[in-house]
Amino acid sequence: MNFPPIHAQSTYSVGNIRALMNEIVACLEKLDRDDEIGMIDLNSLPFSPGEYEALRQTLGQGEVSIRIEAIGPSEIIETHYPGVWWVTHYNVEGDIVADAIEIAWLPQIIRSQPEDVRAGLARLKAQLNDQD
Amino acid sequence: MTAHESLGERLIQQGISRRAFLKFCTAMASMMALPPGSAMAIADALSKTLRPSVIWLSFQECTACTESLTRSYSPTLESLIFEMISLDYHHTLQAAAGFSAEKSREDAMHNAYGKYLLVVDGAIPIKDGGIYSTIAGRTNLDLLQEVAKGAAAIIAVGTCASFGGIPNAKPNPTGAVAVSDIIKDKAIVNISGCPPIPAVITGVLAHYLTFGELPELDDLGRPKSFYGETIHDRCYRRPFYDQGKFAKTFDDEGARNGWCLFELGCKGPTTHNACATTKWNGGTSFPIESGHGCLGCSEPNFWDAGSFYSALSMPAGALKLGTAAAVAGVAVGAAVSVANRAKKQAAQSAHRTATIADLKE
Amino acid sequence: MNEVLLLTWVRSTGLSIATGIFVLGTLWRLIEIYTLGRKPDLSVPRHRAAASGLHTLFRRSLPAPGMFIRASASYLAGYVFHTGLFIVVLLFAPHIMLMQSLTALSWQGLPSQFIDATAVLTLAAMLLVLVDRINNPVKRFLSTFEDYAAWALTFLPLLTGYLASRHLLLSYTTMLALHISSVELLLIFLPFTKLMHAFTLWISRWYNGDINGHKGVPS
Q1: The whole model's pTM is what?
Q2: CB proximity list for B309: less than 8 A, separation 6 or greater
């Protein structure tokens, strides 16, 4: 007997996208008015298969796209809506470990961290001393 | 490795940048269901924390809990978890063996008495003095009681340590019980699941290190941030349940369309865990997304709670009284009927016809 | 005993005992009632008795002239809660699963939102008939302990079922266990109380219509 393969329906939306868009609007208004940073954790939302991709399509891609290499890559893109950033952290194996929409002038993770700056400064000084 | 350096110092030694650590803390915050902006605060707190000594005792278990933890995310991010703690005794993972292994446990207990964390996986057999599982010639019961005395807190990893699990399933030949059945005077957090979600184990450790205390627990001792809601409540297939659209077999039209698996025995409605949102294998999917109902593995006695494949509203076992009750019902009915007829006939035969003479009196 | 064990017990042993008593009691009562028998009526029927019996089955579901106005609460709430019970008990998907596992018969269920709304209406109607029973002096005088018990036995499964499905008051697992136990109580007592009318209703109406028709009082 020949059974057709089983594929879960992939286009079904359970209504997450509309709710998310409303939240993003509220966050953007806060950012503009009060300079307040907003964050939406996408890991904790019960997306149906296909809904996540639909959200990506809805938000689209804007002008900025940044890649960080820190124990696996991180991908940060500004969506089609300025101030709405999609921040995805991967591990070295390419699995997503954290996934959030950040509503900010610039996502926190992009800034150089003071501890790293100090460590880098020390390294640079040590290098100069070595050359002397 | 020493237990007396801060995590921050240790990370610098390892050449791990603050940005990489911040990224790790973002993942932690997401796991612990903390406000997503709190990654920075977690990073600050964690980098100042002294790495606590952890003693991991494995009793009646199958090592899947350890497998689950060591498979949590990639080896490199997972190793960050092990950077956060000083794992001084774990008989599956440690290099030491024999007497030197037991000595490392005794040293760790001695050095951090009252401050170390005790992690337990596996149930503890207590029947016949606990002889059914021993390590280095000592019963699990004895070992647990001794190590628990000096622990700051106990983390019971997996359903066996949390609730007795499969060793405790009927007929429970070894008298297996949970950690909380034996230790009554220590803070115990139960991270149930068979196996538990790796992110939950690391999340609870991170919470303890960040805030210096165990997270808020539900009435079964499980952290609310992971076990606060049922699988059913957070399931992406929930709308199908509400619409009454159910898969009837594992390969029918409904199954193909991704409809609700309630009728195939899914225990999602009575199971508290984070699978539906945290998911498994680095966020790939969870059982229901793969087309199989929830087994309810993070609940007590899940092994004895009826078939995995019968719906919650269906009988958990065979209804044995049916035929006997029907036969008895017919028999009682017939007997009462005969008695009633006998009564009727007795009344009829006792009946005397009244005559005019009777009325005259 | 924890809530999972409690739920498992009511789903296995408890359900077994309850359905056992229910089957036993129902067969017992039905056989007892229908073997009582009646004397054959040898007179010539004045009317077509069988037709009158059939007609009475439906006729008695409608209020007698003028009664709807005089006892509108009883009629209205009565209709609502009987229809509501029928819908909630027989057309909710998990209940159909149970029926299927017991009888191998299955049919299409209704969306749970609709069942939810029906349950609320039914609960309200049942509260209304209780209030009416207590407030109305005649009804209060005629009511015995059995009447209130029968009301509670019917009301509790409905209430606990609603609370369980909406996750109110107690955890779903505990509430589901309570729901199933309340249904089991209902099953145990149904054959031995007035609730037996669920089975005897149609035959007794038929009898009444038939006898009256025979005597020349067609319904």
Answers
A1: 0.77
A2: B264, B265, B293
